[in-house]
């Protein structure tokens, strides 16, 4: 799954570079992908030394817990930043859409600040000295309740997942468009709920592993969920950005035309800046408002930012002139 996440993020960057629209959300996805690739290495050794997939009764007497704890520590260091970077990328992408009400914009700022703060807090909450985590011959000066810490931070992360999923709903619910099209647009962004579902199953498995007596976590899928969650998050995050590439590969499927369209539409030069590729409207230029204007789209030409004007979506937005 790491390979699929790498290919997906690579396709996203290729699409953005071809449209000359690389932004901070793309750089965050690149960082998350690199962390995800790095996570695959300790994940492999953890599975190897912990004998994941085998019943505990089949574990040999030569089993050594020290390398297991060492690679588990590295996995924890890499796991949390991936989810935080992906969520931050989504929030920055929503900001690039532009034209938001002030309440929405400040909600995105607040949620992103909390998300980044949580990432830093988790990263710095460690056992002192760090080596005491895997080397039991080292006496810890400061110790944390590992199982409770894992579960608590995972639950907080799930809460932020739900909040990130609510933002697109808040943004798109005000669009003037057919109900079916509006629902479809919201569903595209709510696909990220699959990642949240995996995260919930992960918390359940963590609780069983640490608190359910007699539960054999080795002989279950619990330890695979962390890798599935972070890679799936990266893949889902890249989904909207890949639409221009899919439309280029499958023009009939992603043309965005309907039988009742007249073919008349406003020219981009009348309303804002255009990027190379023809008719590309930069909604990110519309953060501040003084005048009201209506934007009516016909069929997007290249960027997911155009999702706000796709297929005749009508929304009152403010622009500077």
Task: Produce the secondary structure layout.
Layout: H1 2-18, H2 24-50, H3 65-97, H4 102-124, H5 146-172, H6 179-190, H7 193-211, H8 225-238, H9 243-249, E1 274-275, E2 280-281, E3 291-296, E4 314-319
Helix pairs in contact: 1-2, 1-8, 2-3, 2-8, 3-4, 3-5, 3-8, 4-5, 5-6, 5-7, 7-8
Main location: membrane
Membrane topology: Multi-pass membrane protein
Protein name: Rhodopsin domain-containing protein
3D structure, described in words:
There is one protein chain. The protein has a two-stranded antiparallel sheet. A two-stranded antiparallel ribbon has the order 3-4. It has two domains: 246 residues, Rhopdopsin 7-helix transmembrane proteins (Up-down Bundle); 63 residues, no CATH class. The protein has nine helices and four strands. By secondary structure, it is mainly α. Helix 7 runs antiparallel to helix 8. The radius of gyration is 23 Å and the shape is elongated.
Oligomer: single chain
Lateral arrangement of strands in the main beta sheet:
1-2
Share of residues in helices: 55-70%
How widely separated are the two ends? Answer: 47 Å
Q: What is the CATH C level class of the largest domain, in words?
A: Mainly Alpha
Please tally the β strands and state the result: 4
Please state the second-level CATH architecture of the largest domain: Up-down Bundle
Mean pLDDT across every amino acid position: 77
Question: What's the structural domain tally?
Answer: 2
| Rg over alpha carbons | 23 Å
What fold name stands as the CATH topology of the largest domain?
Rhopdopsin 7-helix transmembrane proteins
So what's the overall shape?
elongated
Tally the helices.
9
Poorly predicted runs of 5 or more residues: 256-283, 285-321
Q: Give the strand content.
A: under 5%
* H/E topology pattern: HHHHHHHHHEEEE
- How many strands, which pairing sense, and closed or not: the largest β-sheet? 2 strands, antiparallel
């Amino acid at each position: 799954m790491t390979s699929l996440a790498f290919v997906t993020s690579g396709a996203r960057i290729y699409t953005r570079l071809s449209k000359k629209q690389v932004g901070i959300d793309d750089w965050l996805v690149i960082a998350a992908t690199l962390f995800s690739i790095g996570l695959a290495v300790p994940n492999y050794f953890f599975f190897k030394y912990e004998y994941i997939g085998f019943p505990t009764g089949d574990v040999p007497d030569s089993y050594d817990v020290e390398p297991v704890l060492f690679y588990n520590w590295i996995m924890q260091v890499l796991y949390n930043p991936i989810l935080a970077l992906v969520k931050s990328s989504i929030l920055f992408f929503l900001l690039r859409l532009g034209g938001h009400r002030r309440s929405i914009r400040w909600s995105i700022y607040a949620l992103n600040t909390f998300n980044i703060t949580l990432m830093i807090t988790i990263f710095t909450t460690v056992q002192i000295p760090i080596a005491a985590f895997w080397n039991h011959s080292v006496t810890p000066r400061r110790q944390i309740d590992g199982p409770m810490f894992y579960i608590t931070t995972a639950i907080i992360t799930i809460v932020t997942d739900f909040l990130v999923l609510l933002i697109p709903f808040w943004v798109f619910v005000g669009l003037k468009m057919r109900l079916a099209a509006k629902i479809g647009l919201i569903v595209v962004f709510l696909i990220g709920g699959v990642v949240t579902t995996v995260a919930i199953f992960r918390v359940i498995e963590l609780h069983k592993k640490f608190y359910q007596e007699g539960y054999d976590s080795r002989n279950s899928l619990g330890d695979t969920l962390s890798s599935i969650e972070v890679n799936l998050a990266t893949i889902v995050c890249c989904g909207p950005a890949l639409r221009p590439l899919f439309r280029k590969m499958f023009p009939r499927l992603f043309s965005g035309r309907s039988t009742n369209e007249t073919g008349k539409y406003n020219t981009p030069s009348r309303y804002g800046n255009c990027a190379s590729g023809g008719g590309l409207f930069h909604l990110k230029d519309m953060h501040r408002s003084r005048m009201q204007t209506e934007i009516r789209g016909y069929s997007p030409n290249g960027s997911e930012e155009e999702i706000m004007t796709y297929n005749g979506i009508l929304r009152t937005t403010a622009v500077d002139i």
